[in-house]
Amino acid sequence: MQERVLKVLEFDKVKEQLLEHASSSLGRDKAKQLLPSSDFAEVVKLHEETDEAVKVLRLKGNVPLGGIFDIRPHTKRAVIGGMLNPHELVEAASTIHASRQMKRFIEDIHEETVELPILTDYTGKITVLADLEQNIKIAIDESGEVLDSASEALRSLRHQLRTKEARVRERLESMIRSTNAQKMLSDAIVTIRNDRFVIPVKQEYRGHYGGIIHDQSSSGQTLFIEPQAIVQLNNELQSIRVKEQQEIERILIDLSLQVGESKEELDRIVDVLAELDFMFAKARYSSRIKASKPKMNNEGRLFLIKARHPLISIDEVVANDISLGTDFSTIVITGPNTGGKTVTLKTAGLCTLMAQAGLQIPALDGSELAVFDAIYADIGDEQSIEQSLSTFSSHMVNIVDILSKVDFNSLVLFDELGAGTDPQEGAALAISILDEVYKRGAKVIATTHYPELKAYGYNREGVVNASVEFDVETLSPTYKLLIGIPGRSNAFEISKRLGLSDNVIAIARSHVSADSNQVENMIASLEANRRQAENELEEAHQLLTEAEMLRKDLQKQMATYYDKKDSLQEKAEKKAADIIETAKQEAESIIRELRQLRIEKNAEVKEHELIDARRRLDAAAPQKKMNKTTAKQKEQKDDFKPGDEVKVLTFDQKGHLIERVSETEWQVQIGILKMKADEKDLVYVGREKPVETKPIATIKGRDYHVGLELDLRGERYEDALSKVEKYLDDALLAGYPRVSIIHGKGTGALRQGVQEYLRNHRAVKKIRFGEAGEGGSGVTIAEFK
Q1: Overall pTM > 0.70
Q2: 337: buried, middle or exposed (CB in 10 Å: 19+, 13-18, 0-12)?
Q3: Which of 44, 541, 563, 667 could form a disulfide linkage to 658, CB 3.0–4.6 angstroms apart?
């Protein structure tokens, strides 16, 4: 892309905003180097990377990318034998730690069945250098201080240092506490000069302590003297310090050699972390501007839904729908210089540049953009009617350059095409330039205030007029793009609102041709009809949304009703069974007591009388009420016929009537048994339909062939739910007690949708995930009522 186009469309400002979201200098460097690509495959891959990072941020909120440094200069120096300083080694350890944290972070998400192929591939290239990290952390703390634990020799030397320093301080403190010290010393303190312990002695007593003078005060009245009595101790202390420094250097050289040995792995870690930091910087920026992933094509199609200019505040910017490359390849935005046309032009161009750089765009889901070989723009500040020739010439030089390069896979943006010269000549030039670019097959968006170009949009195939809406009431543009409606002059309306007399306006209108008036009136009518259509569409959408919410609410209420109904019925049946059981136990207790009485008191109670008493007690026990359906069937059906299917209440079994044996009795066949049954103990179930002579379609029932499982993997969401609905109907007709629905693990969206549908289905009793041998969380088992 031309540097001038990137500057004019303010792509650099987008990069500046992107920089704020990088976690390290590595990510910031990649953001600074960001450029749009014209390679379709590369652009698609870049968007997949950004989308994965967006998915991770949506799931986890943040990523562990702190503590990353560009340690490549350190590894380069270490591999040739250079000694790294403690801070450089700490940066190396911190970067290793960050890579280890990031690798574990992505692996943990992957284990949660979230597919992240690109991020997993990147972290797979990271070599875990835990030993090197640990060696550095044992030797050096986060502030860059070499620790005693770095080596036993250093620990010993540090111990000797502390011991010697204590002895020196003890000798000096005894000196400053002596009787004469107060008059000979400027201050009763022990201090350090040139790494040696000294005391501040007044000038006149310089010879009292002997030793070495290391420094003096600015006035010369105080000398910092190392007394002769501790010179030897200071010498020993200095000797230990030299050995300490030598040991520290040995430790740093050893650690530097380890870094040099791992140069290849460390450089790869830096490269991977740079890519990851950049990916998540793009994801954070996407979240900031409320962007979405566009669908990319290489066929020159633009379809932006509620697109916003990313550099204008979300609270102030007006979102617009912009389409190009399907029904028309050129948009001519006409109308006076009231603002909004240039912003629309830049929005389309900047969104295209962002998309080709792998950035998500500030538009709604479903937006589509093309990958162009080149984007050309001639956009300048709005000029007055007194534009100089030089300004017009500079625009023409740019346009000539564009015409020399443009081809079918180019996007061209012209702002105020033909401006800066005589209106008639400028309009003619604009039409000619647009015709030439159209012939080349390029996609064009042009703005102009020339009224002659309104007719251009109607007379050319593949060209459409557009305008930016202007509110005459507020005397300001709404910045809303109106595709298909050319801009109209608002001069008369604005003048009237500002107080110009009707007489003057009427005279002005008389000077405008009838054709122009007719066109302006037509445009005004189109705008009014469009506004009415948009209001009606919005109202229809609102009604549809309310209806959908009502439907979902009713579904939930129905599901709750059926759940409650089944629960109450189960409770009632349990309660009835408990009452019956209690009654039977009481009956048995009474029979036992009667038998006991007969034995103890020789009462003349016959066994058959006891049996009769039990029968009467059984009859007295509460009986289960027949359900409403059965009662209705019994009430409605008392004219039994041979072949009818009935339920025999005394046996609680279904059978078929064979023949009537008396006025109140029927012979019934239950399975292989035939028996007599009283008509009052029979409940009508159904009657076989007469056999039709025409071919009968396959009858669904228990013999209906339908699988015990439904595989939805690879299905689209809506198609999958449609298949589930039909499958459940078939499974219920087949009489299955339970079925398995295979939805896979994936992102979980299909699984959630299937389970939500099953929970709301009136025939489903309960659902659960499959066991380990049944498919685990990739399968849902539904049990029917």
Answers
A1: no
A2: middle
A3: 667
